[in-house]
């Protein structure tokens, strides 16, 4: 066999210094040699493993300089081994942490064993990342630190998804809060609505009974005005809490703007110049007037907040536009065509691009707690979307803001209010049903003033019996929806059994999509929000009795 040997020897010489023999030793070192090979193999293997490790592997010398740097570290931080080795640890830290370097290094050294930490780090291309570190200092006995090993992983993505998850949880929490608030507000709004209807109705009656030059007339006018505003407030609450579906009819936007403008002008501080400019040539759109009203209120309130206590201008304009290019919204693109352009411009503080990006998010607000809900623009956005419209924001910090809304114009149809409808009851016999005796009295008086004959009821059974007793004796029924005994829908169904062609108008403080669908199925002729103004009810009744039915059922053609 062959063996590895270590040979040592010396020549032995005679008196003339001639070598006469060799003297020495021969040691068999085969085992030692093999151990050395194994160790070399191990080392090569370890280096390979470190190179292929999914974690960054960094060795620091005693001066916190990089002594070893694997490919994963290069992938995380962007520096090659050549660039990194010899560099100080501050290379990987953002500027803001440089003052803490001594502390970071000491913490690393202080750990006798392995220590874990999470820190913000800086890459070669200037990105801030979040890393998880596992650090092990190396010392021999109780001597000084010789070096330290670190394993590092980039956990930025994980941290970000955690942050997103936390934000979603927060949103859910907020939504639950809003849901609870909504139920509470909805309940109050319902009762409040009935009281309001009584106030509004009695004021209208008194207004009609007194001579036009009676000294109390201006006071009555204020009561009517305030009740109107209160009723709009209730509608806002109901819309916030229920996201009311749009009840769209062919509608001129101009009158809505003028009406809402008058309300706003009364509220805005004197330092704000408020103008409404309507181009008379603006075509009608298919819209829900109360929702358009709400859009304008929300946009102008924001404009007012942006101006604050300083003097400023809010300008509302309405004009037709012909778009030759598709209209680009945030999520939708509308085809070229004729649009109605509504803009609200303010000279307020404006917004930076980051804010603009987020303003439609529900609950996004830059206003202090108690002042902003962050719901205004998300409601606006929802309404514009439900109207097949597009919303664009033009804003610069310090330069003010303009909100542009585009709604497709209804070309084929004439505005509904262009055809005058006769409002006279001409002795038609109506059955009026509401569980609130106050509202029956008010309604009765109002309808009688318009030439109707009215039989008032406060109980559904009583109403159904009245029709059963004389099916041909009535021309129509106006019923409340929410009643303790039976709902207005039950009444409508019962009446349909007796006389299918008897028109029923359903009145409710809030018409949920379910109620609307059920009402449609039950053959209800019209739905009206509560409190109903006499004029509104008269128009609806006149349409039912006198106008051809297609006036209401307008469908829109895309231009
Ligand atoms: P809120 O008014 O309750 O804060 P909004 O959804 O109405 O909620 O608006 C969200 C945010 O958008 C506001 O907090 C504000 O920062 C910004 N914003 C909206 N309209 C304007 C505007 N006209 N000028 C400047 N900032 C605005
Ligand atoms: Mg707002």
How would you describe this structure in keywords?
559 residues; alpha/beta; five-stranded mixed sheet; 15 helices; 21 strands; 41% helix; 25% strand; disordered C terminus; binds adenosine-5'-diphosphate; binds magnesium ion
Description of the molecule:
Helices cover 41% and strands 25% of the residues. The protein has 559 residues and is of the alpha/beta class. The longest helix is centred in the first third of the chain and has 54 residues, at 156-209. It is elongated, with a radius of gyration of 41 Å. 26% of the residues are buried. It binds adenosine-5'-diphosphate and magnesium ion (MG). Magnesium ion (MG) binds next to helix 8.
Estimated share of beta-strand residues = 15-25%
Overall pLDDT score: 83
Rounded to an integer in angstroms, the radius of gyration calculated over CA atoms is 41 Å
Gross morphology is elongated
Q: Which structural class do the helices and strands define?
A: alpha/beta
Number of H/I helices? 15
The residue fraction in helices comes out at 40-55%
Attached small molecules: adenosine-5'-diphosphate, magnesium ion
Low-confidence stretches: 412-421, 548-559
- End-to-end separation in angstroms reads 100 Å
DSSP, total strands: 21
Largest sheet: 5 strands, antiparallel
Strand order of the largest sheet: 4-3-7-6-5
